[in-house]
Amino acid sequence: MAGVLLGLALLAFWLYSLFDVITTPEEDVRNAPKALWLLIVALLPLVGGLFWLARGRPQAAAHHTPRQRQPGRPPRPAPKGPDDDPDFLRELDRRMRGGSDD
């Protein structure tokens, strides 16, 4: 029974590490290219995952600092929800008042 639990824990850790490598942006990966980290974690489940967490994963502080904008690239517009879009609100108001042409 202990062997099964240990095997499941190893599988869960391996899947977590693999998913973490895949979802980490290329520019945040440390010490090696993302593709190499993917191979290391995929081929060496326990050791590769431990190395990824210690040497490849972005540091915690990196997630909280704003990224530098690349020269020549315009800044991204902030995401806009439907309740912030004046055209959407006008259309919604028109529909609620019964002026639907659909």
Automatic annotation (TrEMBL):
Transmembrane segments: 35-54
Keywords from the UniProt entry: Cell membrane, Membrane, Transmembrane, Transmembrane helix
Disordered as annotated region, ranges: 61-102
UniProt domain Cardiolipin synthase N-terminal: residue ranges: 12-57
InterPro entries the record matches: CLS_N
Compartments, record wording: Cell membrane
Membrane topology field: Multi-pass membrane protein
Principal localisation: membrane
One Pfam family of this chain: PLDc_N
One CC-aspect GO term: plasma membrane
Basic and acidic residues: compositionally biased ranges: 81-102
Record-given protein name: Cardiolipin synthase N-terminal domain-containing protein
Organism of this sequence: Nonomuraea muscovyensis
Higher taxonomy: Bacteria, Bacillati, Actinomycetota, Actinomycetes, Streptosporangiales
